[in-house]
Amino acid sequence: MTQNYEKLPQGSFDRIPRDTQQAERISKPSVSFWQDAWRRLKKNKGAIFSLFLFGLIVIMALLGPVISPYSPNSQTITHANLPPKIPVIENLGIFDGVGTLGGKEVDLYEMKNVEQNYWFGTDGLGRDMFSRVWKGTQVSLFIAFAAAAIDMLIGVIYGGISGYFGGRIDDVMQRIVEILTGIPNLVVVILFIMIMDPGILAIIIALTITGWTGMSRVVRGQVLKYKTQEFVLAARTLGATDGRIIWKHLMPNVLGVIIINTMFTIPGAIFFEAFLSFIGLGLQAPDASLGTLINDGYKLIQYQPHILAIPAFVLSLIMIAFNLIGDGLRDALDPKMKD
Amino acid sequence: MARYIGKRIIYMVITLALIATFTFFLMKILPGSPIASADKLSPEQRAVVEARYGLDDPLPVQYFNYMFGLVQGDLGISINQFKGADVTDVILSRMGPSAQIGFQGMLLGTVLGILLGMIAALRQNTWIDYSSTVVAIIGISIPSFVFASMLQYSLGLKLGWFPVALWKDGFMSSVLPSIALAMFPLATAARFIRTEMIEVLGSDYITLAKAKGASGSEIAFKHAFRNALIPLITVLGPMAVGILTGSLVVEQIFAIPGIGEQFVKSIMVSDFSIIMGTTIFFSVFLILVILIVDIMYGIIDPRIRLSGGKS
């Protein structure tokens, strides 16, 4: 080894003097918790794909009813029960407007002399399924997001107060939560829907009436965990008010859990809305959500399966996307996993 | 332990009393009359009918009568759907089919789910693992009524392997609804067992077992599987809730004469006493399941401190 070293030409190596000022320099850029989480999330292909897919669904939900030449509620009885027909793709043998009539496969568009194309077909009243499905997606997503936002707001405030102030306040508040969580969600939602006028607002209220308890429990647990730690004690010693401690010191730490929990509330709310509509407690005609569309489609399952299949497919896609995003976020926001 | 169980039972009774009170007053303020074709009756006829069902008593009297009957297991009488039949009898007579598909679905789901999760954990990061994850995600995401109608259309209507609906062919009629209900427990169990197994497989005692020369299957079954199975008990509660929620729509789809189908029907015709009775029945069932699960968990795994914040 030493001999080889001597054979090397002069000047191959520079001597680097020890610089005490350089020693303290941070060589890597500092990565905040959220940047780090985003990095981890980006590695999760399923979650990123789902984010993209969900973005696409939201865009379609907003644009779909606008770009379709037909309004979601206008009825053209002569165009009833048409199967889907999409130009270009129809040449592949799918979405070509062929449906069964009296046990035979016929092009229903030709038979009924329909010039236009209905991309997702039409329903029993001749309404365009394309605009109806996206309109329904809009309504379903709105209900889910509103319910999740209200759950989050109540849950965070309730859990935060209960955990932060502790003592007797916590005792009383927790007993209330314990009894509320004892009541099955299903029962509460159905009962509340029954006493209110059916509609979007009724569904949102029914979903949130006990829905916030899960969030409040999680937030309380996190607040309990962090409020005894040194940085909170330090802040308090320096004279920080309760409000400042909660907002500046506790909230950023609890935020990850809040986000994860919300990501799992949303598919739950979408499911419940569809469920209620399916058993007839949801929106009333002519309002449409994915649930009511599935319910309508189910009645025609034997002859017009597309009326059920398309909204069911969109609903399933949204649910899968949300579960994957939620899983991805849970892994990404876990501080134990650091790159 | 005894103290914990006692405390839980007291909570249970309070919760049930609240639910019963809540349901009772809710039914009273509901729009619509429980008496069939009430509009066509003259005021005198109406008064007779109301007197017969005790609907003319002052509200507190009605309430105490109801609560008193409840304690004795009497849920009142059906007013318009079954013309004076006992609600308790109506519910009990419809329990068979519901219990059968619920039990079959739960059994099928958990057994398959455990198998799937176990194989996925043992073959981590292979195609088996990935496909089992996909199955689990789909099972959790796709609502039971979508899955049920898909099954009904494909296996029932198109292929004709199983009866499309109704409860006439004994076991064969129960196959499709059971599969539809099994999806949720299957997915939950598979996900849960996979995570638990991977954690257990990485623990020290598994390394020790390997070092001592235990065979692969011995480690998998004797050491890893048993310990991964215990926490599964905690998800039995949510699974039962899932099955019950699912049964409302699945029974509707397959026209099964069970409690769920009955419940949806009575909502449509606003048969208040049936709705109240079923609500209370569901609540008792779910609360009991969760209580049993919690107690079982405490007995099986002594490390769990029951008095702690765990729910």
Structure characteristics:
heterodimer; A: 339 residues; mainly alpha; two-stranded antiparallel ribbon; 14 helices; 65% helix; flat; B: 311 residues; MetI-like fold; 2 domains; 13 helices
The description of the largest β-sheet of chain B is: none
Order of helices and strands of chain A: HHHHEEHHHHHHHHHH
Helix content of chain A: 55-70%
CATH architecture of the largest domain in chain B: Orthogonal Bundle
Secondary structure: helix percent of chain B: over 70%
Question: Regions of chain B with pLDDT < 50 over 5+ consecutive residues?
Answer: 306-311
- Structural class assignment of chain B: mainly alpha
Largest binding interface between chains: A-B, 37 and 42 residues
What does this structure look like?
The complex is a heterodimer of chains A (339) and B (311). Chain A is mostly helical. Chain A has 14 helices and 2 strands; from the N terminus they run ααααββαααααααααα. Chain A has a two-stranded antiparallel sheet. In chain A, a hairpin with a 2-residue loop joins strand 1 (98-101) and strand 2. In chain A, helix 4 crosses helix 6, helix 6 packs parallel to helix 9 and helix 12 packs antiparallel against helix 14. The longest helix of chain A is centred in the middle third of the chain and has 37 residues, at 129-165. Chain B is mainly alpha-helical and 311 residues long. Chain B has 2 domains: 2-71, no CATH class; 90-304, MetI-like (MetI-like fold). Chain B has helices spanning 2-29, 43-52, 59-71, 87-93, 95-122, 127-141, 144-158, 171-201, 204-211, 216-229, 232-253, 259-268, 272-300. In chain B, helix 8 crosses helix 10 (216-229), helix 8 (171-201) runs antiparallel to helix 11 and helix 11 crosses helix 12 (259-268). Chain B is flat, with a radius of gyration of 24 Å. Chain B starts with a helix and ends in an 11-residue tail after the last helix. Classes of the chains: A mainly alpha (339), B mainly alpha (311).
